[in-house]
Design brief:
single chain; about 280 residues; alpha/beta; Hypothetical Protein, Haloacid Dehalogenase-like Hydrolase, Chain: A, domain 2; 2 domains; seven-stranded mixed β-sheet; 14 strands; about 25% strand; globular
Length: about 280
């Protein structure tokens, strides 16, 4: 979504060309799924603002932590962190002088909790934008003092060096029970990164596998379009992968082809080719 169909993680509406391309793929008889780092509240608000939210649209959310499918849509899987892991992660985020955000489960309203601590500019902008367009944000004095029996994610945005040090610490202590997914923020000149921590079985590739198995679609029929490090797991599962122009080098090198930027409608162009049967061509299928 962000950086693929949208310019940044702060955008809250799809453009007409992207909506038309998404719908064209569906009308051509393909299954189209949105695979995003956003949670249900954020994704739902975006699609409702855009005036395009089909009842049967499959969604792989929070980097694969939650998968939605079927008609009418229902939850197919959910990977959650228990309270003990959430507490220790909050402590580690604090120890590395970052501001933890705890994303609650969809069943409890998908509330985002964060503490009343100084925020860096990018994280502050993210929270302001999310509060304005989505809501479901609660500020507390102490995350360890509130009851969070389960959560989908503990995450933050900060400068790359700090995020990578935090990531190494989490992997060293908790790498057998959680998975850290790092992505480059789409603002901040490439200096700010996300650190998002999930249950160890979470990534976009795993989410795609759940959805494909439910739908009876072979992995050899999948096309994945993405722009960031969290899309690499998705690229590894899909038969064809498309990276957006301007993606990190590792993402570009892992893709089968590169399309234009989100601002230039690069993803829409690929979707239009799929809908019209121009790509993948018969020899590639």
């Amino acid at each position: 979504m962000d950086g693929t169909l949208l310019d940044t993680e702060f955008d809250d509406v799809l453009r007409p060309r992207e909506i038309a391309a998404l719908q064209a793929v569906r009308e051509a008889g393909h299954v189209l799924a949105l695979c995003t780092g956003r949670n249900l509240n954020s994704t739902r608000a975006l699609l409702e603002n855009s005036g395009w939210f089909p009842d049967d649209l499959p969604m792989v959310l929070l980097n694969g932590a939650v998968v939605w499918g079927d008609d009418p849509r229902r939850k197919l899987s959910s990977q959650e962190l228990d309270s003990a892991r959430v507490r220790r992660l909050v402590e580690l985020f604090r120890e590395h002088e970052t501001v933890p955000m705890v994303y609650g489960t969809d069943d409890t309203g998908g509330m985002l909790h964060h503490e009343t601590r100084p925020l860096n500019d990018v994280l502050g902008r993210y929270l302001d934008a999310r509060r304005g367009s989505v809501g479901a944000v609660e500020v507390v004095d102490d995350l360890l003092a509130i009851e969070v029996p389960q959560a989908l994610e503990v995450g933050t945005i900060d400068r790359k060096a700090k995020v990578m040090t935090l990531t190494a610490a989490i992997n060293s202590e908790m790498g057998d029970v959680v998975k850290v997914i790092n992505t480059r923020s789409l603002i901040g000149g490439g200096e700010y990164y996300w650190a998002e921590v999930f249950d160890r079985n979470t990534d976009k590739g795993a989410g795609l596998r759940v959805l494909a198995e439910f739908l009876g679609i072979p992995l050899a029929s999948l096309v994945a379009i993405g722009d960031n490090y969290n899309d690499l797991d998705m690229f590894a599962v899909a038969r064809w992968s498309v990276a957006m122009e301007g993606s990190p080098d590792e993402v570009l090198q892992s893709a089968d082809r590169v399309t234009g930027t989100a601002a230039a409608g690069g993803a829409a162009a690929v979707l239009e080719q799929i809908a019209s049967g121009q790509w993948p061509d018969a020899d590639e299928r």
